[in-house]
Amino acid sequence: MRVGIGYDVHRLAEDRELILGGVRIPYEKGLLGHSDADVLIHAVMDSLLGAAALGDIGLLFPDTEEKYAGISSMVLLEEVSRRLNAEGWCIGNIDATIIAQAPKLRPYIEEMRQNLASALNLSITQVSVKATTEERLGFTGRGEGISAQAVSLIEGLYEASRDVNACPGCRYREG
Asked: Rounded to two decimals, what is the model's pTM?
């Protein structure tokens, strides 16, 4: 077993959609970034890549590459999942926290969990997403940006088979 931690932050800006966990959230500002700037998914990806010692999202999906401009982070998350599986890893669980003063995220949490679980071929019971404020402290508390943190546990597939279905943490994966 290995554990990885991920962190991401993006500035809030006018004329951008707010997308968190693959969910479009009605708000007057969105996150600024090369891709869709989904801080939740970025933190999750970095936690998974870190646990597997496969670098980080900047290495795999550099913001200097035009093909990643405006790309959905869900597409990138699916690629991270494929890379982990190809390296013989399966995901045990993910625990993530979004830090934002506004908007209120509680109504969107279950859809975020489902999106992450679907992209990673996991049961929703393996994915935790929480949201908190910083009581108006710091850049997130002032509404200047949103950040996210994630911790992931990964397990090695059974070496003899390299079969994703052989790993107890991956029992929800299909073929």
From this structure: 0.89
> Residue 174, class by beta-carbon neighbours within 10 Å (0-12 exposed, 13-18 middle, 19+ buried)?
exposed
Distance between CA 53 and CA 72 in Å, rounded?
24
Buried/exposed code over 29-54 (b: 16+ C-beta within 10 A; e: otherwise) = bbbebbbbbbbbbbbbbbbbbbbbeb
Tokens of 82: 């494929």
The predicted-structure confidence for 119-136, as pLDDT tens digits, reads as follows: 999 999 999 999 999 888
Rounded CA Rg of the chain: 16
Q: Which superfamily does 2-170 belong to?
A: 2-C-methyl-D-erythritol 2,4-cyclodiphosphate synthase (3.30.1330.50)
> What element of type H or E holds 155?
strand 145-156
